Amino acid sequence: MEITFLGTGTSHGVPRIGCMCDVCLSDDPHNKRYRCALLIREGETSVVIDTPPEFRLQALRSGIYDLDAVFYTHNHADHMNGIDDLRVFSEISPLRVYGSKQVLDDIENRFSYAVGDNGDSGLPHLILETIGSEGVDVGPLHFIPVPLVHGCREVFGYRIRNFAYLTDCKKIPNLSLPLLEGVEVLVLDALRFRRHPTHLTIDEAVEVAQQIGAKLTYFTHLTHENDHSELDAYLPKNIHPAYDGLTLTI
Fold this sequence. Notes:
Helix content: 10-25%
Structural class: alpha/beta
Mean pLDDT: 96
Radius of gyration: 17 Å
Number of domains: 1
Low-confidence stretches: none
Number of strands: 14
Shape: globular
Largest sheet: 7 strands, mixed
Distance between the termini: 5 Å
Number of helices: 5
CATH architecture: 4-Layer Sandwich
Strand content: 25-35%
């Protein structure tokens, strides 16, 4: 199973528009962060989690030529607003999209033209599927939703075998912890050092990562307050900041 980070930035992206801070002006490519998304491949199966506004650029950069499914974590714009670019992946046959009921209802309300049979209209042709607690199979991959706390939104992380992707969260509910037992590679929201009402701080994320106990943890959804090399030096040896284009083989 191959995991590629399509984007690792917060809702503003990095560099942030109009900002002259050291990270936004940095020449280090690790400090250039599109909004969060993930690509998972195994054999002939390709799946993405979330479609941020840069999804077209992410797909071109990572050589995504076909998709078998899309999973959404939640319905914030920085995770969903690239949905129109799914039309190229649904030209031959409909593309299945999975998420919570709240997410799918929002897609139907905001992007109604993309749902159902649109014929040869050039529009996306998406089939919406609510994912239950038992999860769903896409090719050889089994996706299990992991409920998270992120303000008032209904948010899912996803577990696939011994890998878990938990972006955009302030807390992992106790009921979700058993779903993460045995995870060996963890991806976790870690916004910044300063406190935030709906996101884990760096230090809070370190505590959560140590509680889960994965062999390796990667932080994502990083703001421009985080310089990659400085953050990597600060973190425990088995925790690292992710970066756009990072690929893991699990």
